[in-house]
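To whoever is on call:

I kicked off a structure prediction for a single chain this morning and the downstream step that reads the tokens threw a length-mismatch warning. I double-checked the sequence; it's 477 residues and nothing unusual in it as far as I can see. Pasting both halves so you can look.
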Amino acid sequence: MKEELLSVGIDMGTSTTQLIFSKLHIENMASSFTVPRVVITDKEVVFRSDICFTPMLADNRIDAVKIKHFVEEQYQKAGINKEDIQTGAVIITGETARKENANEALLTLSGFAGDFVVATAGPDLESIISAKGAGAHTYSKEHSTTIVNIDIGGGTSNLAVFSSADLLDTGCLDIGGRLIRVDQKSHQITYIAPKIKKLIALKGLDLSLGQQVSPADLQPVVLEMVHLLEESVGIRPQSEFYPEIITNKGLKLEQKIACISFSGGVADYIYNEAEGDMFRYGDIGILLGRAIAASALFTQMTVVRSVETIRATVVGAGSHTTEISGSTITYTEKSFPLKNIPILKLALADEAGVDPQLLAAAISEKLDWFKLDNDMQRVAIAIEGKKSLSFPEVQRYARGLLQGMAELIEREYPLIVIVQHDMAKVLGQTLYALLNYEKDVVCIDGVLVDNGDYIDIGKPIADGKVLPVVVKTLVFN
């Protein structure tokens, strides 16, 4: 059994907007005599769009109309209709995610780009997606090493650390190529980001708006930005300004990182020499890239060349956001896809001893987190479960879940349960039976989720054996 999913990735970043189409190849790797094991066996980019500068309105808001026209044009060039799309992601990243109308712009794209496209944003997710698009997780697996990928765009630098393909940590800094903008003709400074203004003041540098500058004039502040990147990966002691430059969190640095790779628009000028006008893009991106190439990041770490640079995030969005559920699952819901379902993840203590009353009380109490004006929204309950459990334990899990989710069951929503361990089929069937087969149930396993995550579940594939799943975090800074 082989099957293909057509996936789209759309990345609306601080500097540029682009999209790709990918084919995800799905195959059952199990023999005829064993439980099906359906996996994504290959990911193939079949179309790469043009790259346009992210259009902005005069009031520094995103021009959603121009973005939509660009996406429509690229669909036409690829010869693909939105109805053809089965999975994928719309990613809004960096400074763009902080614009007042970021949500509005995402909704414009998400409605256009297919039924099962997800709209996601947030520095942690972007760090993971761009690192996968750059090939860092694959490199760490193939070489049994630890690597950090730094995706440097116009407004932020996203960091993700992998060890033998396992994600260890993420971080994000407000360092990027368009945080200082320079008029291409006059070479006057037209914009300095607030945090960079603070850095300039702290270091006593002579730079201000309207000032005509040369690359040499900007070199001191660019070097300070590079020093902060060195601090972020542990090869330079952290300075007093380091906490200020962090977007949401830095790396924990619990172990030494051996290798480093770079992606994002700035990465092209890290890996390659730059000739001609250093201000050709109206910013400091080229200067930042060349300064990184001459820094301790290159001399104290093993530098790995990324498989993607400026397209790393969009390739990651189109090829690496979709997962496949376990094969031992239960579902009765006919109106797939299910989209934007918030996750309520129970603590291990809530599952201790599989006590139905304890389980029910924990769910009932935590469901209050998801009430808006005392109205309950649709929620998916996530538990870890057990690797091997007896039928009485399944019954206790089911009774606790049903009792705790009573308020959800009263609604027209399907009952959605996500289990880490391989027990979703027997648990889902037990839940369905206890509900007298009168309530839709979706019970899946093999997917890792946490509180703060949202989940999209697509239409069944592989002859109904598995469900395509996208786990995401919807965050607008």
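Update from on-call: the warning came from a stale cache, not from the record. Cleared it. Sanity check on the structure: The chain has three domains: 2-120, 126-310, 325-472.
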